[in-house]
Specification:
single chain; alpha/beta; 7-stranded mixed β-sheet; 6-stranded parallel β-sheet; globular
């Protein structure tokens, strides 16, 4: 099969496109013929060389396609089924899995980071990780939401527990997870303050329902937030940026506020001011991916049309370096999709 892979970490020059052996499903596994995959910022970190990435590696966590083959012991799934992938992998036997907190699994792994991923014509995953594509959703849309939206769902609903009427500050809302958090926060009834850069993205954030959009390159985010909230601060802050925004998050939080984080794209070692945390009684909440229950709830929201994943641009799999470069430029609004060269369009809706 054709696949994108790398044998050493580095920039886009390490990405290769070529032939690799087709994977075979084992007991409890299924093989998919992929029709669409999507690019996440995690794929950049994996390429760069975050700890724990084995080599060689096929990146890519999200994917949708047609079931091609099933392994022994699989029931309820048949070849030809249109499915999408839940990219989080768990053991099912540790104390956290048994408590329904699969993303806390002691052996938790992510497709395309710890095991071969979806930037290929075919992929093998556990049967419990495939779900029927909701009616009316294209392959491209089905590949656009699982990783980013489940992360945002757990952050906003599961960890921060946003309630109707609460103010939610989202840094860098033009990004994948942060953009999904805007939609989820609005669905939860939150009043969203979003930061982004550039007039085009400012308009898109307003169209997405943000009550206030701040251009962080042209304005003092903290000053604008304080003015907008009459110096009270915000109830919840979604911070996936890290070093560049952390002090702003601490200072912008209201008394009793919550800051939830799932990453640090600008760096993992920000300046800290502990007195702000204890004096304002701020809760700092870490978050990674989601539980199985949370993913199923998210999928229901997508199936019901309460959330609709957005696609920005589609690249052939062979042009993966260009897709990576496009993501690193930060101009996208919505997901960047990769499709196998010569495959049928990922757009037509199906049942």
């Amino acid at each position: 099969m054709k696949a994108v892979f790398f044998t050493a970490h580095g920039d886009n020059s390490v990405l290769q496109y070529g032939e690799l052996p087709e994977p075979e499903p084992g007991p409890g596994e299924v093989r998919l013929e992929l029709r669409a995959t999507s690019l996440n910022r995690l794929d950049i970190f994996v390429r760069d060389g975050i700890p724990g990435v084995p080599l060689p590696m096929i990146p890519g966590g999200d994917g949708s396609g047609i079931v091609d083959r099933i392994g022994p012991g699989v029931s309820g799934i048949t070849p030809g089924d249109r499915v999408l992938i839940q990219p989080g992998l768990w053991c099912g036997a540790c104390e956290f899995c048994l408590a329904g907190e699969q993303s806390l699994c002691v052996t938790y792994r992510i497709l395309g980071e710890h095991v071969p991923g979806t930037f290929a014509e075919k992929v093998v995953v556990p049967a419990r990780n495939v779900f029927a594509i909701p009616r009316g959703l294209s392959f491209a849309e089905a590949a656009a939401f699982p990783l980013a939206y489940q992360t945002a769902w757990r952050m906003v609903v599961g960890r921060a527990a946003v309630r109707p009427g609460e103010t939610v500050l989202i840094h860098g809302a033009g990004g994948g997870v942060a953009g999904a958090a805007l939609e989820v926060a609005r669905l939860a009834g939150g009043r969203v303050i979003a930061t982004t850069s550039g007039q085009e993205k400012l308009g898109r954030m307003r169209d997405a329902g943000a009550e206030l959009v701040i251009d962080y390159r042209a304005e003092d985010v903290l000053a604008v937030v304080r003015r907008h909230t009459a110096r009270r601060g915000v109830d919840v802050i979604v911070d996936t940026v890290g070093e560049a925004t952390w002090m702003t998050s601490l200072k912008a939080a209201a008394r009793g506020g919550r800051i939830v984080t799932c990453g640090a794209t600008s760096g993992p070692n920000p300046k800290e001011e502990i007195r702000l945390i204890f004096w304002k009684q701020i809760s700092i909440l870490g978050s990674t991916m989601s539980s199985d229950r949370e993913f199923r709830t998210l999928l229901a929201a997508v199936a019901e049309g309460r959330l609709r994943p957005r696609v920005d641009r589609v690249f052939p799999l062979s042009e993966a370096p260009a897709a990576y470069a496009y993501l690193e430029e930060g101009r996208q609004h919505g997901k960047i999709i990769l499709v196998p060269d010569g495959a049928a369009s990922p757009w037509p809706d199906g049942d």
